[in-house]
From TrEMBL:
<dbReference type="Pfam" id="PF04973">
    <property type="entry name" value="NMN_transporter"/>
</dbReference>
<dbReference type="InterPro" id="IPR006419">
    <property type="entry name" value="NMN_transpt_PnuC"/>
</dbReference>
<feature type="transmembrane region" description="Helical">
    <location>
        <begin position="148"/>
        <end position="167"/>
    </location>
</feature>
<feature type="transmembrane region" description="Helical">
    <location>
        <begin position="174"/>
        <end position="196"/>
    </location>
</feature>
<keyword id="KW-0812">Transmembrane</keyword>
<comment type="similarity">
    <text>Belongs to the nicotinamide ribonucleoside (NR) uptake permease (TC 4.B.1) family.</text>
</comment>
<feature type="transmembrane region" description="Helical">
    <location>
        <begin position="92"/>
        <end position="110"/>
    </location>
</feature>
<dbReference type="GO" id="GO:0005886">
    <property type="term" value="C:plasma membrane"/>
</dbReference>
<dbReference type="GO" id="GO:0034257">
    <property type="term" value="F:nicotinamide riboside transmembrane transporter activity"/>
</dbReference>
<keyword id="KW-0813">Transport</keyword>
<feature type="transmembrane region" description="Helical">
    <location>
        <begin position="122"/>
        <end position="142"/>
    </location>
</feature>
<keyword id="KW-0472">Membrane</keyword>
<protein>
    <submittedName>
        <fullName>Nicotinamide mononucleotide transport protein</fullName>
    </submittedName>
</protein>
<keyword id="KW-1133">Transmembrane helix</keyword>
<feature type="transmembrane region" description="Helical">
    <location>
        <begin position="69"/>
        <end position="86"/>
    </location>
</feature>
<keyword id="KW-1003">Cell membrane</keyword>
<feature type="transmembrane region" description="Helical">
    <location>
        <begin position="45"/>
        <end position="62"/>
    </location>
</feature>
Amino acid sequence: MGQTQEHHSWLYNQLFTNWKKFEIIYVSVLVALQIIVYLIVPDSIIGMISGVAGTLCLVYGMKGRKITFIFGIVQCLAMTYIAWISHAYGSFAMDIFYVISQPIGWYMWGHDEATKRFSPKVRRLIFLGAFVAWAIGWWVLAMVHGQLPYFDSINFVVSFIAQLLYIMKYQENWSLWIIVNGANIIYWGILAVQTMMGTNHIGSLGASLSQIALQFALLFNSLYATKVWASGEADNEGGAGKDGDK
């Protein structure tokens, strides 16, 4: 098997090698969920593109593969547009950062680089800092009249910290993403309900539902990625790194 894999291209190895049956099933279900949501409420093709690309981005990130950043560019550009039309200013600011961080992450993720982990003391300081930053972000977003600033602040500041840890391959990034994904499910859920009730005319129902489906997918992926990165399975790009160079 090893000899056969050497003849595959980098792209093939990144996309198709070393997948567990469970992973294939769950990524298929998550992508299908995005398409189903779009078929139910087909008013936001951008939302569907964001959802599919975002799902693939995080799944390949879970595998520790650099191709995650290609899907990430697509997802982040789509999310930036959705956040802007929804007046989710915290999300909009973060999406701009996400777009910039994709090529940086591509550069920083070496083919043979192992994931890293902080000491318990440093980990506690990071989580404390994230909480303080969230409180400050809440205040700032409330001052500019952003929607649901207490939730949007999580997407603004906690996501920023999580993304930095992600592109530096620290395992703790997934713990923060779990918080972000959970908050985003509530955030977009509230916006969807407000849209259906006619109390919110900003954005679209389809875009909100696509984001809810995406955040559920990302939450599941973050939980699973915590296990994968801790076990070392994401090292060497999930087994695709060395062969991709040959």
